[in-house]
C-alpha cells in the first residue's frame, strides 16, 4: 500500500514538473492577444535600438580614427605658408577633427577670436552628427519597461475580469492567460530597457572620447597660430 502511494505521488510530481516546463514561445502564446501585441512591439523597439547602436558605433569608431601625423603635417604646411596644401589634406581626411582644422585654416588671416568661433560652430555641427538618433535609444530604454508594465496592468485586468465573471467558480486555465500576460510582458520590457540603456551609455562614452579628441586638436591648432613665425 505504501509503495503504491509513493508511485502515485511520483507520477503526480512528474506531471506537475512537465506542466511547469514551458518554452518562451509557449509563454508568449499563452499570454493572449494583448500580451502578444505588446511583446511584438517590444521586439520592434529592440530591433530599432540595436540597429541604431551598431550604426552609430561604427560611425563613431570611424570618426575617432585620425592619422597620428595629421597635425604634424598641418603644422609644417601652416608654418611654411602652404595653406592650400593644408586645406587639401583636411579635405582628403574624412574625420570630424580634419573638418574642424579645415574650417580654422579657411579663416587664417582673420582675428584669432573669429577663428576660434568658427571652429566652435563647426564642432557643434560635428557633435550633432555624432549624436544622430542616439536620443532614440535613450527613449527606448525608458519606454520599454513602461510598455512592459502596461502589459502587466492589462494582464491583471483580464485576470480580475475572469474572476468577476466566474460566478464563484474560478477557472484556473482562463485565469492563467491574464497572469501569463502580466509576467511575460514585464520581463520582455525590462530586458529591452536594460539592453537599450547599456547601448545608450556605451555610445555616450564613445562620443565623449571623440569630442575630447576634437577639442584637443582644436586647441593644438590655435596654439600653432599663436606661435611666432
TrEMBL record:
Residues that span the membrane, as ranges: 33-54, 134-160, 180-200
Topology within the bilayer: Multi-pass membrane protein
Compartment(s) where it occurs, according to its Swiss-Prot or TrEMBL record: Cell membrane; Membrane
Record keywords: Cell membrane, Membrane, Protein transport, Transmembrane, Transmembrane helix, Transport
A Gene Ontology cellular-component term: plasma membrane
Annotated MotA/TolQ/ExbB proton channel domain residues: 94-215
Pfam families: MotA_ExbB (PF01618)
GO biological process: protein import
InterPro entries: ExbB/TolQ_transport, MotA_ExbB_proton_chnl
Family recorded in the similarity comment: Belongs to the exbB/tolQ family.
Protein name, entry field: Outer membrane transport energization protein ExbB
Amino acid at each position: 500500500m505504501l509503495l503504491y502511494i509513493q508511485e502515485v505521488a511520483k507520477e503526480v510530481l512528474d506531471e506537475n514538473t512537465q506542466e511547469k516546463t514551458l518554452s518562451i514561445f509557449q509563454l508568449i502564446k499563452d499570454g493572449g492577444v494583448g500580451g502578444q501585441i505588446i511583446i511584438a512591439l517590444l521586439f520592434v523597439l529592440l530591433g530599432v535600438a540595436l540597429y541604431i547602436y551598431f550604426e552609430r558605433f561604427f560611425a563613431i569608431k570611424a570618426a575617432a580614427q585620425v592619422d597620428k601625423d595629421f597635425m604634424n603635417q598641418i603644422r609644417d604646411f601652416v608654418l611654411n605658408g602652404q595653406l592650400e596644401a593644408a586645406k587639401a589634406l583636411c579635405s582628403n581626411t574624412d574625420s570630424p577633427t580634419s573638418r574642424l582644422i579645415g574650417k580654422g585654416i579657411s579663416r587664417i588671416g582673420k582675428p584669432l577670436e573669429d577663428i576660434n568661433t568658427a571652429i566652435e560652430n563647426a564642432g557643434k555641427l560635428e557633435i550633432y552628427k555624432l549624436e544622430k538618433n542616439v536620443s532614440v535609444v535613450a527613449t527606448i530604454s525608458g519606454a520599454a519597461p513602461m510598455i512592459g508594465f502596461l502589459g502587466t496592468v492589462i494582464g491583471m485586468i483580464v485576470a480580475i475580469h475572469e474572476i468577476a465573471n466566474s460566478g464563484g467558480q474560478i477557472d484556473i486555465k482562463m485565469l492563467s492567460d491574464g497572469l501569463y500576460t502580466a509576467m511575460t510582458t514585464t520581463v520582455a520590457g525590462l530586458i529591452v530597457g536594460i539592453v537599450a540603456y547599456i547601448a545608450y551609455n556605451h555610445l555616450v562614452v564613445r562620443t565623449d572620447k571623440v569630442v575630447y579628441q576634437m577639442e584637443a586638436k582644436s586647441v593644438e591648432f590655435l596654439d600653432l597660430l599663436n606661435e611666432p613665425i
